[in-house]
Amino acid sequence: MRILGVDPGLVTTGYGVISDSSSRGTRGVVELIEVGVIRTKADSGIAARLNRIYRALQEVVSEFEPDVLVIEKLYTHYRHPATAILMGHVRGVVCLVSGASDIPLVSIAATHVKKSVAGRGHAGKEQVGRMVERYLSLRPMSAPSDATDALAIALSYVLNRRPG
Question: Which residues are tagged catalytic?
Answer without folding.
Answer: 7, 72, 146
